[in-house]
Design goal:
mainly alpha, single chain, about 0% strand, 6 helices, about 130 residues
Length: about 130
C-alpha cells in the first residue's frame, strides 16, 4: 500500500467524519455569533496566560483558578460557544487517536537514544 494514497484516503475520511462536519458547522455558527466568539476568545486568552505562567514556573493562584472556572461556566451557558468547544474537543480526540496509531506503527524504527531523548531524571534513555 502506498503511504501517500493512504494519507489522501485518511484526509478524505476525516473530511467525511461526523467530528469534522460538526466542527465545521460549529465554527461557522461561532463566527456568526459575535458574543459567543468573544467569549471563546476571552477563554482562550485566559488559558494562554495561565499556561505561560505555569511554564514560567509561577504558581497559579486559587483566585486565578476560580476566575477561570467561572469564565468556563459562563462560556458553557452560551449554546453556540459550548457547541464549538465540544466539537473542538471531539476533533482533537480524533486527531490525537490517529497520531497515536501512526506513532505506534512507527515506534519500532525510532531509537530514543539516537533521537537524543532523555527520561524524567535527565538521563539518556536506552
Amino acid at each position: 500500500m502506498n503511504p501517500y494514497n493512504a494519507a489522501h484516503n485518511l484526509a478524505r475520511a476525516l473530511r467525511e467524519s461526523a467530528e469534522f462536519k460538526e466542527m465545521k458547522d460549529a465554527t461557522s455558527a461561532l463566527k456568526d455569533d459575535q458574543s459567543a466568539k468573544q467569549m471563546v476568545m476571552d477563554l482562550r486568552n485566559q488559558q494562554i496566560e495561565l499556561q505561560k505562567q505555569k511554564q514560567s514556573g509561577i504558581q497559579v493562584s486559587k483566585e486565578q483558578e476560580e476566575k477561570m472556572e467561572k469564565l468556563l461556566e459562563v462560556v458553557n451557558m452560551n449554546l453556540t460557544a459550548k457547541r464549538f468547544l465540544q466539537a473542538e474537543y471531539k476533533m482533537a480526540v480524533l486527531l490525537q487517536d490517529i497520531q497515536n496509531i501512526i506513532g505506534d506503527a512507527t515506534s519500532e524504527i525510532y531509537d530514543p537514544e539516537l533521537m537524543g531523548q532523555q527520561d524524567d531524571d535527565g538521563e539518556q534513555q536506552a
